[in-house]
Amino acid sequence: MSITLRSPLDMHLHLRDAQMLTIVAPLSASSFSGAIIMPNLIPPVSSKEDVLAYKKRIMDSIGDSSFTPYMTLFFKPTYTRDFLESVQDEITAIKLYPAGITTNSEGGVSGFEIDDLRETLDAMSDLGIPLCIHGETGGFVMDREAEFVPIYEKLATNFPKLKIIMEHITTSASVDALDKFDNLYATITLHHLIITLDDVAGGMLQPHLFCKPIAKRPEDREALLRVALSAHPRVMFGSDSAPHPKESKEAPGCAAGVFTAPIALQRLAQLFEENNTSFDNLQKFVSDNAQEIYGITPIEKTVTLSKKEFTVPDNYDGVVPMSAGEKISYTIDSIS
Ligand code: DOR
Ligand code: ZN
Predict the structure, then answer these.
(1) For residue range 74-106, what is the model confidence (pLDDT) as tens digits?
(2) Which end of the chain has the smaller Cβ count within 10 Å, N or C?
(3) 57 burial class (0-12, 13-18, 19+ CB within 10 angstroms)?
(4) What is the Å distance from ligand 1's center to 136 Cα?
(5) 21-57 pLDDT, tens per residue?
(6) Is 79 inside any structural domain?
(7) What is the pTM of this model?
């Protein structure tokens, strides 16, 4: 059994900077055509110069691979229309973090009063710049995403022409919101399609599965699987692959993030097969839907996977992937 994926896209990816960038960027650039690159560096990517310089560092780190880093800015409510017009050709989206909600998000948004956001969001809406949101409140950890849904709905209602992407959704509440508003979209990670909170903390604590938003209940995972496997047209694959050094994960005060980029396509193929789902839907989930939603035409790249066991490495230069040491039933055979 084999499957050929055309121009796979990762619509939510952390590539980091400096040495980590040189370790992880080539891994994504080899098997994906492109990815939406998260801006939560220290300091965050928040000017045209930052975007151009970071893009260059990414391109320098991937050698000859053909790969498009779709760049993002770190949302600030102070962005003016003039500023956005000047930067729009260099970015594909803007990422909004509530302040302090996750890694390097301290400079994020501290309130969601529409009037405080109107100028920037009206301009983004007019210019056709999508808004990607990390949708969590500061509430109880299991409820943070569901509590954020009314904010998604308020934004979707007030800015009906703005494309709002609910990033890395983990709950049935977000899946339900998707079907209430035509301008709401979502990315779903690999790990949230596979694990629940039980896998993270139900037995011995698994730091390499700890992330924000935390994995939720079985019924939430079922809801995510339903829309991913059926390739819901407003749902895309976004790995949220978020590498941290092994020492930062296997530590008190474990950093949040699951590193999945190098195993994502293989494990997705296994997941779709296990669920008796057509690989046509996998093609839509990992590329076609994103092309339609973002209006992008990715570099042509074909990735052929075959049903052959692949043992996930223990680490990639000191960065531990999800499922390290375990076997996945699909291997990447060739990339062209
Ligand atoms: O687990 C996470 N890690 N969630 C995020 O939102 C950010 C990411 C990171 O940058 O490490
Ligand atoms: Zn992320």
Answers:
(1) 999 999 999 999 999 999 999 999 999 999 999
(2) C
(3) middle
(4) 12
(5) 999 999 999 999 999 999 999 999 999 999 999 999 9
(6) yes
(7) 0.98
